[in-house]
Write a structure and sequence with these properties.
- The protein has 76 residues and is mainly alpha-helical.
- It is elongated, with a radius of gyration of 19 Å.
- The chain starts with a helix and ends with a helix.
């Protein structure tokens, strides 16, 4: 049988890894969105980085929604 105090010791490290993973997903997602926007802006040849802005804001909104969804179902 497992000691209940050992579960308390594991929980903060699991949360740290979980939130670090979410932060990495956020950085990678925004980075990919910026890169795709840059490529599309270069192909369309607009003087203003329109697609970079649109893709990065869209990625930010989707990733924030995912973070809120993931953290709200967290077992307390």
């Amino acid at each position: 049988m497992e000691d209940p105090s050992s579960k308390k010791n594991q929980k903060p490290s699991n949360l740290l890894l979980r939130y670090a993973g979410l932060a990495f997903q956020m950085m990678a997602g925004i980075g990919v969105a910026l890169w795709l926007g840059y490529l599309l802006d270069k192909k369309v040849n607009i003087g203003f980085p329109l697609f970079m802005i649109i893709f990065s804001l869209l990625a930010l909104a989707l990733l924030l929604w995912q973070i809120v969804k993931d953290t709200s179902r967290h077992d307390r």
